[in-house]
Input
Amino acid sequence: MTFSDPVLAPWLLGLCFAVSAVFLGVALSRRPWRVLLDDNRLQHRWLAATVVVMLMWQLRAQAVDWLTLHLMFTALLTLIFKAPLALITVTLINLAMATIGRSDWSLVGINVFVTGVMPALTISITWRLVDRFLADNLMVFIFICGFFGSALSSLFAGLSAVGLVLIGASDPDVVRNAIEYARFLPLLMPSEAFITGMLLSILVVYHPEWVATFSEHRYIDTK
Output
């Protein structure tokens, strides 16, 4: 989901831009381009994933004038490329959306926060907990990270959007629509979870080396 109309107070848009910029700066500080430069095949996969996700974002539903619903794929990108590259990908896609007129330039910061920072942070924490505390089991990784983690990422992204509207919107109709939208979040989460879990399952079976958060040695070779 992305904001498509500046219905929030300017100070909140500026704050979200600053927060997104900080997280993007942290991602860039990890120098993810070093991995890309060292692996030509990874470059192709990352560029292809960026283009495909950008095209998938075109399949959207305009819930209200100010909010557009679509699959984010941020959780899947994070699991495949890890958070720094995933956040850079989502930022590039949001910039592309503003360039082609699908969203206002003033909304880039808040859209990166909702579609990038929140879901990437949520799935990263989920993966870390699975990696550290749960058994080295293939099904655990797929179901907790792929299905449950992506659903949780979608939930927190949606709740962050609703929370920002409740904090920064002055129009009562916008606030009322945000509350109505929150009630439909449980219906939107399964689609993100199903597609992410399905694609992750295919990748870890046929191309486990493509999933950066997946250890082929831990989950397959030692079994």
Remarks:
- Strands lie at 2-3, 61-64, 67-69.
- The chain has one domain: 2-221.
- The first strand starts at residue 2 and ends at 3.
- Residues 2-221 form a domain with the Arp2/3 complex 21 kDa subunit ARPC3 fold (CATH 1.10.1760.20).
